[in-house]
Amino acid sequence: VVFPAFVQSHPKKQEALKIGLAVLNKMQEAKLITVDELCYRVLMQLAGQYNKPGMAVQVFSQMKKHGVHPNAITYGYYNRVMLEAKWPSPKSKGNLRWLKIR
């Protein structure tokens, strides 16, 4: 309940989401608290809400890395984020830079 409010009030959404993922990773590595699937799902949902599909991919990857198995609900949210995201267009700055480098 606290993390969504933190992200909403933070001026840089991407930075706030990265902080959340870092906290989850540290909690997993320290084995202080059992981090369950819901923690990752909320972070994925927020990534989708703020149109950060790359962050959702990172969250999903970290979730699997730490042995947290997604259920059908989490897969559904992940797929929704991937399908509804506004992915960079072929004319985006990043894509144009990549074409110049190639």
TrEMBL record:
Q: What is this protein called?
A: Pentacotripeptide-repeat region of PRORP domain-containing protein
Source organism of this protein record: Arion vulgaris
Q: Which GO terms describe its cellular component?
A: cytoplasmic vesicle
Which Pfam families would you find in this protein's record?
A: PPR_2 (PF13041)
Extract one GO molecular function annotation from the record.
guanyl-nucleotide exchange factor activity
Q: Where are the PPR repeats?
A: 36-70
GO BP annotations listed: regulation of Rab protein signal transduction
Gene3D superfamilies per UniProt: Tetratricopeptide repeat domain (1.25.40.10)
